[in-house]
Amino acid sequence: MRTRIVLKEKNLPFERILMDLPNQEQKEPWYLALNPYGKVPLLVEKGAWVYESAICNEYLEEKYPTPALAPADPGARAQMRLWVEFCNSQFVPPVITLVYENRKPPAERNQEKIAHNIQRLDELLARLEEQLQTRDYLLGEYGLADITFTPFLALCERVGVDLSRFPRVASWAGRLKNRPSYEEVRLGLAA
């Protein structure tokens, strides 16, 4: 979803090929030959095979720099990468854990695990709240760092994480979800 948002933001044409993830199509030998991690997305373009959404997004930013989704200043660009890493290593795991727990029948859900991950997200959301204290987006302007969080902020709301306790984060999430690129990608999930 994150790479599709970047493609939409940059108005780049692309063909979306769906993988049957529940049936592990991404673990088939033909796919592992292209992406040894056996994950999505995989961006294939003449002369390039790129996987891992953060790397796909930076590749797209470097190859198609307009409109810019990353700061030009090296220090600010490093900050962008730190926020992407923070999202991927810290924020995503508790969100995904909550998604899986919420898919289980209510009687089978591990309430201790749910409580622990909600508490962890509260700590992380407080850090985001602080970062957004004087700006609308993580680095001031909308970009790759914000895009990295977009689908997981939407998932937070679906699994019962109350963003309203973090008003700046809630406003930021609203701005992210109101972008046309998000709406097109979100609607494409049903396709």
Can you tell me about this structure?
- By secondary structure, the chain is mostly helical.
- The protein has two domains: 2-63, 3-Layer(aba) Sandwich (Glutaredoxin), CATH 3.40.30; 74-183, Glutathione S-transferase Yfyf (Class Pi), Chain A, domain 2, CATH 1.20.1050.
- The chain has helices at 2-9, 29-34, 53-63, 74-103, 111-131, 144-158, 167-177, 180-188, and strands spanning 42-45, 48-51.
- A hairpin with a 2-residue loop joins strand 1 (42-45) and strand 2 (48-51).
- The two termini are 13 Å apart.
Oligomer kind? single chain
Whole-number average pLDDT? 91
Q: What's the tally of helices?
A: 8
CATH T-level fold name of the largest domain: Glutathione S-transferase Yfyf (Class Pi), Chain A, domain 2
Order of strands in the sheet with the most strands? 1-2
Q: Biggest sheet, open or closed, and with what strands and sense? A: 2 strands, antiparallel
Percentage of β-strand residues = under 5%
Rg value: 17 Å
Number of domains: 2
Number of strand elements = 2
Roughly what percent helix? 55-70%
Any guess at the CATH architecture of the largest domain? Up-down Bundle
User: Which structural class should the secondary elements be placed in?
Assistant: mainly alpha
SSE layout and pairings?
Blueprint: H1 2-9, H2 29-34, E1 42-45, E2 48-51, H3 53-63, H4 74-103, H5 111-131, H6 144-158, H7 167-177, H8 180-188
Antiparallel strand pairs: 1-2
